[in-house]
Amino acid sequence: MKMQAAVVEAFGQPLVLREWDIPVAGPGQIVIKTEACGVCHTDLHAANGDWPLKPGLPFIPGHEAIGKVTEVGAGVTIVKEGDRVGVPWLYSACGHCEYCLNAWETVCPDAKFGGYTRNGGFAEYILADPNYVAHIPNGLAPSEAAPLICAGITTYKGLKQTSAKPGQWVAISGCGGLGHLAIQYAKAMGLLVCAVDIDDGKLTHAKALGADVIVNAKHEDPAAAVKKSTGGGAHGVLITAPSLIAFKQGIGMARKLGTCVLVGLPPGEFPVPLFDVVANCITVRGSFVGTRADMAEALAFAVDGKVRADIELQPLSAINEVFNRLRHGDVPARVVLNFQSA
Ligand code: NAD
Ligand code: ZN
Ligand code: ZN
């Protein structure tokens, strides 16, 4: 049996829309019929082969996939046919290394990545590990849930990693797919938000979503502007922008004793101003998606109506056009591929 999929056959080339074998659930596995899958900037990095760890070719990207379980392999008890689940970036982990034991499965050395080292959601069916799928609460439509299982969980976890407390400031650099959700999580967590982007449309949107202050990094020095509006710098900085310049600027936005959380993944390196970081006791840390516990918390905000992804629906066949728009910053928030017939 065949399905339609968008496939990366060569890095840096358009995806190929073609037939692919529908996966079959082996012992301990499940198959999901895709209802919706968000398009993350990470999918673009994956298709470009941007990072040192490269996926094997050909592969099917997509790690914001939501769908219903259609097949359950032998021994699976945690989900049943018909359950609505999500297949996220953290596709599976070993469950018994020092990181898994400490609920840090995101950095398990044996972790597999959805839409990267395992085939993902730009296809009508997906094979998944039932121990690592997201459980989609009732009341959340598949297309609304899709962006939450990567963009949502990543920014929610990233904000927690800033250690900013209610009433304190966070600066969010990059207000696209990740950033527009980060602003909403931050407001729901009682934080003051300074939103930074290079696009006025994104910043108008940021303001509408509750940002207290907006800064266009193209028109003014964003570090100076954030320091001025926050009375000395943000307690937490979350950098989601897929741009190296945003990283150096982000360090400059931090308050003394502040924490700068790096989430964006443009290929390359950036210079750290050592004197500023050392003399101001600034913490710089990376953050990578989130754990299963973070997933449940991130989804609960949406069920309560505190966070809502802004989505534009497109068919799978539009994927190359969507990639081009994402490359040029022309996606207002998140595109979600819609697999449900009207
Ligand atoms: P996106 O394209 O939807 O949004 C990026 C935003 O950054 C846009 O609004 C753009 O205008 C803005 N931007 C670009 N340059 C900027 C600059 N110099 N200063 C401020 N803003 C700038 O992308 P996305 O889907 O939100 O993903 C963003 C990045 O996060 C990607 O690199 C992606 O791979 C990464 N990511 C990381 C994780 C993780 O776990 N760490 C998870 C998901 C995505
Ligand atoms: Zn993602
Ligand atoms: Zn492990």
Automatic annotation (TrEMBL):
Record lineage: Bacteria, Pseudomonadati, Acidobacteriota, Terriglobia, Terriglobales
Record EC number: 1.1.1.1
Zinc among keywords: yes
Classification via Pfam families: ADH_N (PF08240), ADH_zinc_N (PF00107)
Signal peptide: none
EC class of the enzyme, as a word: oxidoreductase
The protein, known as: alcohol dehydrogenase
Family membership noted in the UniProt record: Belongs to the zinc-containing alcohol dehydrogenase family.
InterPro entries, per the entry: ADH-like_C, ADH-like_N, ADH_Zn_CS, ER, GroES-like_sf, NAD(P)-bd_dom_sf
Highest taxon above the source species: Bacteria
Domain Enoyl reductase (ER): 12-337
Source species of the chain: Terriglobus saanensis (strain ATCC BAA-1853 / DSM 23119 / SP1PR4)
Keywords: Metal-binding, NAD, Oxidoreductase, Zinc
PANTHER family registered for this protein in UniProt: ALCOHOL DEHYDROGENASE 1-RELATED, VACUOLAR PROTEIN SORTING-ASSOCIATED PROTEIN 11
Keyword Oxidoreductase: yes
Gene3D superfamilies from the UniProt entry: Medium-chain alcohol dehydrogenases, catalytic domain, NAD(P)-binding Rossmann-like Domain
